[in-house]
Amino acid sequence: MSLITCENLTLAYDTGVVASGVSFTLEAGSYLCIVGENGSGKSTLLKSVIGLHPVDGGTLTVDPSVRKSGIGYLPQHTPAQRDFPASVREIVRSGCLKRSGLCPFWRASDKKLAEEAMARMGIDHLAGKCYRELSGGQQQRVLLARAYCATGKLILLDEPIAGLDPMAMTEMYRMIADLNREGVAVVMVSHDVSAAVQYATHILHMGKTTSFFGTTEAYLATPVGQQFARREGGSYGDWNPKTAWDAPDIGKILDVRAAPDARSVLGARGVSLNRDLTATRRRGGAGSNREGEDA
Question: Cα–Cα–Cα angle for 245, 246, 248, nearest 5°?
Answer without folding.
Answer: 120
